[in-house]
Amino acid sequence: MGPGDAVDGRVFHVKLPGHDAMARRADEHVVPTRVMLPRRVVDGPARQVGKRLLMALLVLAATVLIVWLDRAGYNDNADGKVDLLDAVYYATVTLSTTGYGDITPYSDGARLINVVLVTPLRVMFLIILVGTTLEVLTERTREDFRLKRWRSNLRDHTVVVGFGTKGRSAIQTLCATGLPKEQIVIVDPASKVIEAANAEGFTGVVGDATRSDVLLRAELQKARQVIIATQRDDTAVLVALTARQLNRGAKIVAAVREEENAPLLRQSGADAVITSASAAGRLLGLSVLSPSAGTVMEDLIQQGSGLDLVERPVIKAEVGKNVRETEDLVVSVLRGHRLLGYDDPAASPLQLTDRVITIVRASPPPGSGSSGPSLPHLPMPPHHRP
Predict the structure, then answer these.
(1) Between 237 and 43, whose confidence is greater?
(2) Which of 108, 110, 163, 381 is 20 to 30 A from 269 via CA?
(3) Contact 298, 367 (CB under 8 A)
(4) Does residue 310 have a pLDDT over 60?
(5) Before 349, cis peptide (omega within 30)?
(6) 252-281 pLDDT, tens per residue?
(7) Interatomic CA distance for residues 358 and 334, integer angstroms
(8) Is the pLDDT assigned to residue 246 strictly greater than 50?
(9) What's phi and psi for 128, nearest 5 deg?
(10) Average per-residue pLDDT in the chain?
(11) How many whole angstroms from its chain centre is CA 148?
(12) d(CA 176, CA 301)
């Protein structure tokens, strides 16, 4: 689908503010798709090889020392004596299992030492040499097992397309509300971005999110909600169309740069569309008119500190009551698909199937003395004043 393609028989033109990284990389080459699970930080390949080489040298040095100290029990077919060079030579051919037989232990003590000490060192040396291959096979098997277990256990998770500024901010908000990192899957075409997400404890899928096979790798068909935080509006439209086709019941929230593209994104399957540029502009304008009001609004959309905007179901004790009689500061009532303001006569009395959107004070983190930065006094609406 392009900027001028038809949706439901009508042609829409998507305004393109610029060329983002996702679309550019997808156009230049086919991005290899793979799932990357978070894991512990391990040493780099060079450091691991260096450690194994050092261990092999230590084993070799120990074997040379053993042979040299017991050189009287060995016989060299060339001259009958074993010097330091002969000890190094014997240790090398013995540990590598070559065994030419020109230097041999003939005394009982030398043969006993070979059985008790040299043979275990030979086995250890071989294990070090083949350790890299064994580790690769073991790691691959372990990763396959982790991936299968991850796919089988993943249900009702959140898929975030794009791990830029918007995607990171959305994830921070979700985590602040208690969503575990294991329930978040990030999709991005850049492997370095997914590696950064893995380092923070998130599972990532490398690939172009406009392709259905990439979203299937993120198990989008089993997801509860999808966040689209791409840089280009046309990319967001394609992702929304693909995501809605794969999952009819998921809640899809998307961000657009240009407000005129929001209707097209809603028609593509998005349940909610946030115009990032316009929202930032409105917050700037509000802050100019009233810096305190701007501070309160910014705090409301930043979960976990100060004041939080929370949606919750109506409890049994509130059923049949007026909106003004609730303990929380209710600003809206969600009844079915209708969003009623607190001053709407239809909002009261509250029903058991309603959901209310309230303003609450965020709980301070354990061990902290305050819940966040100092906020201006928030006046209560008239219907909440005594």
Answers:
(1) 237
(2) 163
(3) no
(4) yes
(5) yes
(6) 999 888 888 889 999 999 998 888 777 777
(7) 11
(8) yes
(9) -65, -40
(10) 78
(11) 17
(12) 11
Residue 238's CB: how many other CB atoms inside 10 A?
Answer: 21
Which residue type occupies 64?
Answer: V
To the question of pTM greater than 0.85 for the whole model, the response is no
Question: What local confidence, expressed as pLDDT, does residue 111 receive?
Answer: 80
Q: What is the pLDDT of residue 383?
A: 40
The residue behind tokens 């810096």 is 291
Q: Are 157 and 183 in contact (CB under 8 A)?
A: yes
Of 256, 262, 215, 357, nearest in space to 300 by CA: 357
The answer on pLDDT for 193 being more than 50 is: yes
Q: Using CA atoms, how far apart are residues 354 and 335, in angstroms rounded to an integer?
A: 5
Work out the average pLDDT over 353-372.
Answer: 67
Amino acid 294 reads: G
Token digits of residue 318? 């509130």
Instruction: Output the CA angle 147-149-152, nearest 5 degrees.
Output: 110
